[in-house]
Specification:
Layout: H1 2-8, H2 10-13, H3 19-27, H4 34-43, H5 49-68
Amino acid sequence: SEMCIIDRGNILTHYFTDPLTLRKYQQGPIGPYLEEFIDWFEKRGYGSHCGIRRHIRGADCFARWAEKIEI
C-alpha cells in the first residue's frame, strides 16, 4: 500500500514530503539504494538539505536514463 511505501523510506521523508515524489523515488530504479545513498552523503557532510535533494534528483534522473537506454 501507499502508506507502507512512505513508511519504508523514513530517511527520504526528511528530504521530501509529497507522497507522489516519495513514491516516484522509492519505486524507481534507485529505490532499493536510497537509504544507503542518502546515508553516505549525510555521514560525509555533503551539502545542505537542498544539496542532498539535488543529489537524489540527479541520481534518479541518471538511473532512469540508464534504464531507458538499457545500460
